[in-house]
Structures are given as structure tokens and as C-alpha cells.
């Protein structure tokens, strides 16, 4: 039952077994088996519509699945959304950064970052604000704390979104195409912040088209095609000597330019 | 055609003190009804978008019934019809407030539904991904944004309901139109008095428009 694709014997932080999901007739995830160890950085690549976003959205229950088993940090997610208490615990421990940032436009940058620690973790305003300011400092936008999201550039907004997720002190971070909505000149600043986070040992699952980032930062790259994991390996192995024809085709298309 | 008619300004101004006595009733029916209508609107607007059918269906029925029938018929039903069921008369003022409440409540339900549904799905997903409960996500993230978007249509509804109260002269509430009719019955200055009545409505609705514009401008910060 347990398919182990990681050498470590430590307790995995994410364990997905035979996960299947359909939207109506469309079978978007097929028998997904994926195990992620604490501290690992896993990059998921694949064509658009391959199911890679759906895959990571299943980890924090933003998408339901119909069959299979997902365990995140010791909490079991059941098929068809029948696990609200575990879901709440998982979401408290798992941070997420979205393609479209999804900052709260009616709240200042500081309130965006400090809201969840106060309402979910029950921190005092003083503690939450102090943490928020420290995190904004860390992602390089401390001077923007009193502004509203619409007053910031895309790259700054995405860094606020990163700080907002980190404020909950997550054990795992999910990134759903974090740079796809950014102007080219702003991609670097977001990737730098993510690189920094990886260096500090954060467990990360990243869906991206940034192959350079994947090669440099990932411990493992997972290639997904039409809802199936085709191949997964260390980045130099996967990029330089892919085993499957599908992977070779995909890489030849994305790496050519 | 003999056009020797002279607009009698003196008569027009003379009617104002009498007409002003109707304003408190007009305002009480309008704003009392709208306040209750707003509460009804929040409740039924949210029920309307519930995934649970037995919560959603009564809300749809309520909205369709009270949006699809004239407010005049509603007030006549409440004032003349309901007493037959209840076995006692209903105060005309109460009947007026109730009619505005159930009528505006139906429209406001749709405004609430539209406002909440207009908020991007990503806002809810971001809230839930941070560990907020669905109730917290609604209270801190969805509702404040939805409410801002609801202000302009709520203003429209307010103005419509204020004007609707003019129909309630038929049940004898001493509101603005009723006061005008009573005054004209003794002076016959229909032109002058109805012009004054119209101007007084305009004064109320323009004040509301102005107040809403201020509120909207304030609310736009950070959008």
C-alpha cells in the first residue's frame, strides 16, 4: 500500500495514496501516490490542465477527492470532504500562496498578515503585529505595512501573501504557480524570497513553470501528465536524463526557449 | 386657449407647515421599514445562496412572492386583509412599515446575494487556507467587501421605498401625500401643493443620495 519514493525513514509530512478525483466525466487525478518528507522541496511540473494545481489543492482540502487516502502531518483527510475537523487542523499547519495572490483588499498589508494568527491561533494583537512586522521585514516590504494591497506592485503583493502564510508558522508551504501572474521583472524577487525560505529548511510543494528555479532549489521534481505522475526524480536526473518519452517531450518543449 | 392661470406662490408656501407634519410619518415608514427590510434581506439573501435546499427554497419563494406583487396590494392586504385573520384591526402606521419591510426585504435579499456572490472565490480560499473557519471567513473577509459593493444598490432601494410610501395615503396614514390631499380638499390649490409635495420628496431622496455618496467615497479606501 505505501509506496516509498524517498530514502528517509522519518515520518512523512504528506502521504497521498491512490488519490483519484474527477470533475464530472473528467478524471483529473489518477491513482496519485506521493510522499513528502519534512524539509523536502518538491516541485511539480506539467502542462496546463495536467492536474498539478488540483493535486496540491487536495493537500489542504481546497479540492475534494473521491477515492484514496491523504494524510497531512498526522491528520487524515477522507474522500468527499468528510473530515472537517482534520481539515481545520491541516489548514492551520499548511500555508498556501496562490497564483492570483488573493490578498484581502479591504485590509492593510499589516492586517492581512496579522489577522489569521489572532483569529485562529488566538494571539494578542501585539504579538501578531510584531510577528507580521518581522515577516514583512524579511520579505523586504516593511515600509509598505500601512498600505493597502492595491497600492503595491504584483511582486510586492505576492511577497505579502508569502508573509501572510508564514505568519501562521506553517509546517508545510504550498505554492500554486506563484509567479505565473507576475510581470517578468517581478518574478525574480518572489523566487528569491522562496529560495530563502527553502534554505531555512521549510518543507515546500511548488507548482511552477520556472524550470531554473526547480533545477536549483528542488530536492525532487515530479512530472504530471493528464492527472498521472509519470516520473519523479532529483532535478538533475529528471531534467538531464528523463526516463519517459512523455517527460522528454514536455521538457524539450519547455526548455527550448 | 386661455392661459391666464397664475402660479400662486403664496398658497404654495402657506401649505408647507401643514405638509411638514407628514414628513415624520414618511420617514418613520421608510426608514423603519427599510431597517427591518435590511435584516430580512441579510437573512434571506444568505439563505438564498445556501447549498441546503430546504433553506434555499423558502427564501426563493419569499423573494419571488414579494418582488412579484405590487407594494400597494401588499399594504392593502396587510391593512384590510390580515385583520380578518387576526380578528382585530392593524394600526395603519404598522401596516405601512410592515409593507415596506417585506417588500424591500425581497429586493435587498437579492442585493445581498449579488454582493456576496460577486466576491472572488480566491478570497474564501485564501481565508480557509489560513485556517479561518467558514464563519470567520465570512465575517472578516467576505461580508466587509460584499457590503461595500452593496451600498449603491441599497441606496437605490432606499429611494424606491421612500417613494413607495406615498401609496400609503390610501390606508390613511398622515404621510406626505395624505397631508397634501387633505390640504387641497379645503384650498383647491392642487398645482401648488403637489409641487411642494414633490419638492419635499426630492429633498429627502437627495439627502439620502448625498449621504450615500459620502459613505461610498469613504468605503472605497483600499479597494
TrEMBL record, chain A:
Keyword annotations of the record: Amino-acid transport, ATP-binding, Cell membrane, Membrane, Nucleotide-binding, Transport
Name of this chain's protein: Amino acid ABC transporter ATP-binding protein
Topology within the bilayer: Peripheral membrane protein
Location of this chain's protein in the cell: Cell inner membrane
Gene Ontology cellular-component terms listed: plasma membrane
GO MF term list: ABC-type amino acid transporter activity; ATP binding; ATP hydrolysis activity
PANTHER family (alphabetical): AMINO ACID IMPORT ATP-BINDING PROTEIN, GLUTAMATE_ASPARTATE IMPORT ATP-BINDING PROTEIN GLTL
InterPro entries (alphabetical): AAA+_ATPase, ABC_ATPase_HisP-typ, ABC_transporter-like_ATP-bd, ABC_transporter-like_CS, MetN_ABC_transporter-like, P-loop_NTPase
Residue stretches making up the ABC transporter domain: 14-251
Organism, scientific name: Billgrantia pellis
Family: Belongs to the ABC transporter superfamily.
One Pfam short name: ABC_tran
CDD domains: ABC_HisP_GlnQ
Source organism superkingdom: Bacteria
From TrEMBL, chain B:
Its membrane topology: Multi-pass membrane protein
Record's subcellular location: Cell inner membrane; Cell membrane
UniProt GO BP: amino acid transport
Keywords for this protein: Amino-acid transport, Cell membrane, Membrane, Transmembrane, Transmembrane helix, Transport
Principal subcellular localisation of the protein: membrane
TM helices/strands, residue ranges: 25-47, 59-82, 88-108, 193-215
ABC transmembrane type-1 domain location: 23-212
Record-level Gene Ontology MF annotations: transmembrane transporter activity
PROSITE patterns with a match to the protein in the record: ABC_TM1 (PS50928)
Any Gene Ontology CC annotation: ATP-binding cassette (ABC) transporter complex
Keyword hit for Phosphoprotein: no
Gene3D superfamilies: MetI-like
Family the UniProt entry places it in: Belongs to the binding-protein-dependent transport system permease family. HisMQ subfamily.
Its biological purpose: Part of the binding-protein-dependent transport system for glutamine; probably responsible for the translocation of the substrate across the membrane.
Name of the protein described by the UniProt record: Putative glutamine transport system permease protein GlnP
Amino acid at each position: 500500500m505505501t509506496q516509498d519514493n524517498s530514502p528517509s525513514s522519518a515520518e512523512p509530512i504528506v502521504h497521498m495514496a491512490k488519490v483519484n478525483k474527477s470533475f464530472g466525466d473528467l478524471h483529473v487525478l489518477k491513482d496519485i501516490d506521493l510522499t513528502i518528507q519534512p524539509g523536502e522541496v518538491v516541485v511539480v511540473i506539467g502542462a496546463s490542465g495536467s492536474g498539478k494545481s488540483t493535486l496540491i489543492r487536495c493537500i489542504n482540502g481546497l479540492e475534494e477527492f473521491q477515492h484514496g487516502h491523504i494524510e497531512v502531518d498526522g491528520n487524515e483527510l477522507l474522500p468527499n470532504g468528510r473530515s472537517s475537523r482534520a481539515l481545520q487542523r491541516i489548514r492551520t499547519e499548511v500555508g498556501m500562496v496562490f497564483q492570483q495572490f488573493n490578498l484581502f483588499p479591504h485590509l492593510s498589508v499589516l492586517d492581512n498578515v496579522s489577522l489569521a494568527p489572532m483569529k485562529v491561533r488566538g494571539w494578542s494583537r501585539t504579538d501578531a503585529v510584531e510577528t507580521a512586522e518581522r515577516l514583512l521585514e524579511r520579505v523586504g516590504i516593511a515600509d509598505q505595512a500601512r498600505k493597502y494591497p492595491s497600492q503595491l506592485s504584483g511582486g510586492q503583493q505576492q511577497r505579502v501573501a508569502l508573509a501572510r502564510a508564514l505568519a501562521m508558522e506553517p509546517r508545510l508551504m504550498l505554492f500554486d504557480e506563484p509567479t505565473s501572474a507576475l510581470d517578468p521583472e517581478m518574478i525574480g524577487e518572489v523566487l528569491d524570497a522562496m529560495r530563502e525560505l527553502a534554505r531555512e529548511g521549510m518543507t515546500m510543494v511548488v507548482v511552477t513553470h520556472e524550470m531554473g528555479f526547480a533545477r536549483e532549489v528542488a530536492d525532487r521534481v515530479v512530472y504530471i501528465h493528464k492527472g498521472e505522475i509519470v516520473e519523479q526524480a532529483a532535478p538533475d536526473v529528471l531534467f538531464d536524463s528523463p526516463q519517459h518519452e512523455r517527460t522528454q517531450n514536455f521538457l524539450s518543449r519547455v526548455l527550448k526557449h | 386657449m386661455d392661459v391666464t392661470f397664475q402660479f400662486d406662490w403664496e398658497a404654495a408656501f402657506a401649505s408647507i407647515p401643514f405638509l411638514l407634519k407628514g414628513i415624520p410619518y414618511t420617514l418613520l415608514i421608510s426608514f423603519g421599514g427599510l431597517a427591518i427590510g435590511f435584516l430580512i434581506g441579510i437573512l434571506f439573501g444568505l439563505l438564498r445562496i445556501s447549498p441546503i435546499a430546504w433553506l434555499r427554497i423558502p427564501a426563493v419563494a419569499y423573494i419571488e412572492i414579494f418582488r412579484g406583487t405590487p407594494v400597494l396590494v401588499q399594504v392593502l392586504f396587510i391593512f384590510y386583509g390580515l385583520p380578518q385573520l387576526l380578528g382585530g384591526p392593524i394600526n395603519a402606521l404598522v401596516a405601512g412599515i410592515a409593507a415596506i419591510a417585506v417588500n424591500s426585504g425581497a429586493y435587498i435579499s437579492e442585493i445581498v446575494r449579488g454582493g456576496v456572490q460577486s466576491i472572488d472565490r480566491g478570497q474564501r480560499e485564501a481565508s480557509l487556507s489560513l485556517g479561518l473557519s467558514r464563519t470567520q471567513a465570512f465575517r472578516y473577509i467576505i461580508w466587509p467587501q460584499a457590503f461595500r459593493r452593496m451600498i449603491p444598490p441599497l441606496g437605490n432601494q432606499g429611494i424606491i421605498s421612500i417613494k413607495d410610501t406615498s401609496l400609503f395615503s390610501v390606508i390613511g396614514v398622515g404621510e406626505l401625500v395624505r397631508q397634501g390631499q387633505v390640504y387641497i380638499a379645503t384650498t383647491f390649490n392642487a398645482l401648488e401643493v403637489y409641487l411642494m409635495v414633490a419638492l419635499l420628496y426630492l429633498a429627502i431622496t437627495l439627502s439620502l443620495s448625498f449621504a450615500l455618496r459620502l459613505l461610498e467615497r469613504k468605503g472605497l479606501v483600499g479597494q
